[in-house]
Amino acid sequence: MSKLILENSPEIFRSSTRIERTPGSVTRDILKVIDTPGMISFAGGLPDDTLFPIEDLKNIFETSVSKKGAKLFQYADTQGHSDLRAWIADRYYPGSSADEILLTSGSQQALDLLSRYFIDEGSAILLERPSYLGAIQVFSSYAPTFIGIHYTEEGPDLEELKYALASSSEKPKFFYCIPDFQNPSSYSYSLEIRNSLSKLLLENGVPILEDTAYRELYFEEKLPTSLCELGPEHTISIGTFSKTLAPGLRVGWIKAPKKILKDLIVQKQSVDLHSPTLNQELVYGFVSSSKYEKHLSLIRKTYRKKSEHTFVCLQNNFGNSLPLRISKGGLFYWLEFPQEIDTDLLFQKCLEKGLAAVPGSSFFVGKPERNHLRWNFSNASEEETKLGVERLYKVYKEISER
User: Fold this and answer.
1) Residue 147, SS3?
2) What mean pLDDT do residues 183-194 have?
3) 264/375 Cα distance (integer angstroms)
């Protein structure tokens, strides 16, 4: 069969402006090169896959299919697995119910559904500086006006937040934040900041979108009360099992007032009808068993050990040339280099040496800061970490001595 080809034919595939507005994800691009021979990657927020409870999930699969059969492979309720929703409500949101939970395909879909709900083109939204690059990516596709609030070791700069609220030409649609072991900084809000921030935003009529992806990954003491518990009437909470169980299952959730949830369910219907029923069944079977708490203890112990090993490697190589602070939870180190070090250049030079990490400029809205690097410590072995930090220091010295 011959193909019809016209000279000077008009453009057929015409993309929407949303395509142009959506930035690529540097971490997803980096993942394409991590299989290069000799490459060591500390780029993606990858859990340690040796900790995935494969045998337990296999047994749950076999038992569930035996008991429920074809039902697990049929269309299902958009809101998701009712028992899993009830479990989430009971564990993370005391006094709430399954009716306030919507299960999503990971927390990334939760962010997209909430963007659909809140953001009109040009809408003002508040978020931390730095912030999760996946959130920046999805928000950008809806063309908001970003208002970044500087993030300190104790939490957002409240004076800066007050000024932003007072000077904004329109009331911001929401404040997106990661109060617990933030991605990328690994910082957590103090209880004082949580109380003050929740009260301030309630007084100004601005909702909070609280991302709790790393809340369970504490190494020492449990974290202070969540923002959702402090102010359930003006806080929407986002969660995921990607960091505590397995990201490939793609099970996350939104906790929101019923009125809002009703609209979010309709939006999810338009996107994918419902998240995979079988995956939700696997998650529920595991988290509702006694094995989940043991599993959480294991990953906390493992990640704490990896964090401490990473810190020692950084200290041994960089000494006092970088301000180092040991991570108390989560999956990352946020490395701050001298102002004259451009980590975009550092990143490119590291790739040439077989090392991948994420340059800090990817985590900022507006004018980026270019002297930070995000380092994931949870996936690499001790030997890979030692070698990776040595490579990083070698590249750093080459650049700084120019």
Assistant:
1) strand
2) 96
3) 34
At 100-131, the pLDDT tens digits run 999 999 999 999 999 999 999 999 999 999 99
Q: How many CB atoms lie within 10 A of CB 221?
A: 8
**pLDDT at 9 exceeding the cut of 80:** no
Structure tokens at 17: 């402006």
pLDDT tens digits for 151-170? 999 999 999 999 999 998 89
Tokens of 258: 């019923």
Helix or strand run (H / E) with residue 294: helix 291-318
Residues 6+ apart with CB under 8 A from 256: 100, 102, 236, 237, 264
**CB of 123 closer than 8 Å to CB of 173:** yes
H or E element at residue 103: strand 101-104
Give which of 238, 229, 173, 167 is closest to 201, Cα–Cα: 173
CA-wise closest residue to 103 among 248, 328, 255, 242:
255
Runs of H (alpha helix) within 141-246: 158-167, 191-203, 227-230
Please check whether residue 51 is in contact with residue 246, taking contact to mean a CB–CB distance below 8 angstroms: no
Instruction: Tell me the residue length of the chain.
Output: 402
- The angle formed by the CA atoms of residues 225, 375 and 349, to the nearest 5 degrees, is 155
Cα 378 from Cα 301, distance rounded (Å): 11
pTM above 0.85, yes or no: yes
40: Cβ contacts below 8 Å, ≥ 6 apart: 354, 355, 356, 380, 384, 387, 388, 391
CA atoms within 13 A on the CB side of 51: 25
